[in-house]
Design a protein that fits this description.
- There is one protein chain.
- By secondary structure, the protein is an alpha/beta fold.
- The protein contains nine helices and six strands.
- The chain has a domain of 179 residues: Undecaprenyl pyrophosphate synthetase (3-Layer(aba) Sandwich).
- The protein is globular, with a radius of gyration of 20 Å.
Length: 259
């Protein structure tokens, strides 16, 4: 067991190390948009013999910390994947507490009044209380001039693409366009204008915690040219120094944008 003195020394050294990383970060190479897949809440709780809901609560608290870190570095957009469409099929005794935790977390982010909240996901798949919480957060923060925070709840990459194509078809049909005319002129920009994140820059950096090295359907379209960083830490254990290492890794890469 680590003594208080050793822990204090470790904390001091960590702060010094963080300061060193921060000092050498080029402001011109800070990602404008960071996406984060917050993975590992359940494993974190179970490893300590606690209920899964305890992990989700710890994970929700970490989101606020993470957003402050991003804001402090001057990141303009953050997308946080809080709940996938696949998660909506989980047993009710896990899903319902999780939805309440998400609602509370979104209310707390709204109350901070520092960031503009934008829900991304299939709100029609969510319970009405959760959907209303997300819509209320967007309305309440609409005029906030700070960092844009995409809250991905009920989100799935394939569902987003299907919704985008559906929206595009309905828009063109309302104009009287035929399928043949649409097929002749459609391009990537047409589809991009109907994504949940329309008008936003694509993510420069996508971070996933818990050691899993896959996207799982996160921002499938938008992340085509993103840089990825996979961290072993479970989300509730994700530290400021882990975040700075991720940004440093991004800043040191030569981005080829698919070439």
């Amino acid at each position: 067991m680590q003594t208080p003195g050793k822990q204090k020394l470790r904390d001091v050294l960590t702060v010094i190390y963080e300061g060193r990383i921060r000092r050498y970060l080029d402001p011109e190479r800070i990602p404008k948009h960071i996406g984060v897949i917050i993975d590992g809440n359940r494993r974190w709780a179970r490893s300590a013999g606690n209920p899964v809901s305890h992990g989700h609560e710890a994970g929700a608290s970490k989101i606020t910390e993470f957003l402050h870190w991003c804001d402090d570095l001057g990141v303009k957009v953050v997308t946080v994947w809080m709940l996938s469409t696949d998660n909506l099929t989980r047993p009710a005794d896990e899903l319902e507490p999780l939805l309440r935790i998400i609602e509370q977390a979104v209310d707390e982010l709204t109350a901070i009044g520092r960031w503009r909240i934008h829900p991304v996901g299939a709100l029609d798949l969510l319970p009405s209380a959760t959907a209303e919480t997300l819509k209320r957060a967007e309305t309440a923060t609409h005029d906030v001039g700070g960092m844009l925070v995409n809250v991905a709840v009920g989100y799935g990459g394939r569902r987003e693409l299907a919704d985008a194509v559906r929206s595009l078809l309905l828009e063109e049909a309302a104009k009287g366009s035929s399928i043949e005319e649409l097929a002749e002129h459609i391009d990537v920009e047409h589809i991009a204008r109907h994504l949940y994140t329309k008008g936003q820059p694509d993510p420069d950096l996508v971070i996933r915690t818990s050691g899993e090295q896959r996207l799982g359907g996160f921002l499938l379209w938008q992340s085509a040219l993103s840089e990825f960083y996979f961290c072993e830490a479970l989300w509730p254990d994700f530290r400021h120094v882990d975040f700075l290492r991720a940004v440093r890794s991004y800043a040191q890469r030569e981005r080829r944008f698919g070439t």
